[in-house]
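Changelog-adjacent note: as of this version, every example in the card shows the full chain rather than a window. The one below runs 200 residues end to end.
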Amino acid sequence: MTQDFQDFNEYAYEVEGAPEEETVTLATPGDRLLAFIVDVLIFIGIGILGLIVGVVLALVIGGSDELEAMTGDNFFGFAFLLIILPPLLINLGYWVFVLAMIAQNGQSPGKKVLKIRIITTDGSAWGWGGTLVRELIGKLIIIGVISGVLGVLMDRALGPESSGLASLIVILALFIWIVMDENNQTLHDKITNTFVAKVT
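Full-length structure tokens:
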């Protein structure tokens, strides 16, 4: 049985594939914020791990003399192959893993910790199509473009030191959007007709 999405808060919501004993209610903005923070911290941790792997590889393969010489002519090739490439590959692998998690059950690691998940407005099963649209187009591309344009405008209006705040402002604006929206949706939720629910 699918409930009217506009009256979501008045009903328990049945989700295709969910265990019968699960009750689904809207996730709070706080739940979503904490899940985002967990995801960011994991991402940073994975990046640091990749950087450590790269530095260790540089020391093992090139030796300390070669590492010191990175400030010379061979900096870009050596740094990219042994220090920059490992964290990039590890982070890429991690995000493929995260996308697979989201496609399977609508949960990133942060959402899993907070016991919240992405659910379609009609309760139908989530999958790869919606995941790619929501996570890559809705978040990465559209939000990236908005952040980029805002960064250029801030750079011209306030100076280059202000442009770095653009992404933070966009993230804050999206969080305010969630708080103000009656169904706790934001831009990428609207694009894909999804919401984030707390499953108990």
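Structural remarks: The two ends are 18 Å apart (CA to CA).
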